[in-house]
Amino acid sequence: MRLCNQKYTVVDLSLTIREDLPGTWPGHHEFSHTTWKYFISEDEPYATNYFCIDEHCGTHCDAPTHFIPPPESGIALAGVSGTLWGDQLPLSQMMGDMVVIDARPLQRENMDGISPWITEEFIQEWEQSHGEIISGQIVVFQTGFDAYYVPGKEGEKYVQSPVADKNSPGWASPSVGAVSYLYEKGIQCMGIDAASMGAVHEGIPLHQWGLGRNVLYIEGLAHLEKVPSRGAVFVFLPIKLAHSTGCIGRAIALVKEFS
Q: How far is CA 103 from CA 98, 107, 125, 158, in A?
């Protein structure tokens, strides 16, 4: 595509949602896709389907209401962030210069049900090699877990085995300290190519800390190996679903073409 006289390659960073793919968090409502009408007659010469899906299935963003209760609820950690639903999220916050931090070297095979931590120090070491992360950028963590987004037994490694069965390793996850470090640098949106930004063994604190400060998490990304560590433009557009705690959507990267 051409934009402002510059040619870009569009890279799809989204997962395909299908009934035989492992996009649903264990214990949540499973995705279903059903035919409603299929070329019934001359009066109804069309096909249409309906689907039922958890808000946090496949490639999606978390709204603050996912973990932060509204102020009037009286529930612990309630705050004004708990009034920001998915349909109210600022789209501009989910677009920007993209930074891809490769966390695959942290992966360990003997950590069943446990996520290796992406620490503040790990990010600082990355900056020493790739340049400083600056305010307004979209920071995305590459874990390689989208490789498990396949049907069958191998697909259980994506989320079922590490989270529910605890018989395979968890994906690398940023610690609260790492997210705090990025937040202080002006990062308001982060993404990951795994089922959750939070650690398999300790996912709640990260969500409470970040969403309580209106940091947006985009989870279930894919194909990060197709984009450079720096230089691409990230775009995520969620569906506009009223009173949602999160929204499925389409994530893309715009990568400049050089002649």
A: 15, 8, 12, 16
Strand partners, 230: 99
Using CA atoms, how far apart are residues 65 and 62, in angstroms rounded to an integer? 8
Distance of alpha carbon 59 from alpha carbon 84, whole angstroms: 20
pTM beyond cutoff 0.90: yes
Number of domains in the chain: 1
Structure tokens at 55: 């808000």
What are the start-end ranges of the H helices in the chain? Answer: 120-130, 176-184, 204-211
Reported as a single tens digit per residue, the pLDDT across 138-192 is 999 999 999 999 999 999 999 999 999 999 999 999 999 999 999 999 999 999 9
Q: Which CATH number is 233's domain given?
A: 3.50.30.50
Structural domain range at position 116: 2-23+55-256
Q: Residue 230 contacts by C-beta under 8 Å, 6 or more apart in sequence?
A: 97, 98, 99, 100, 130, 131
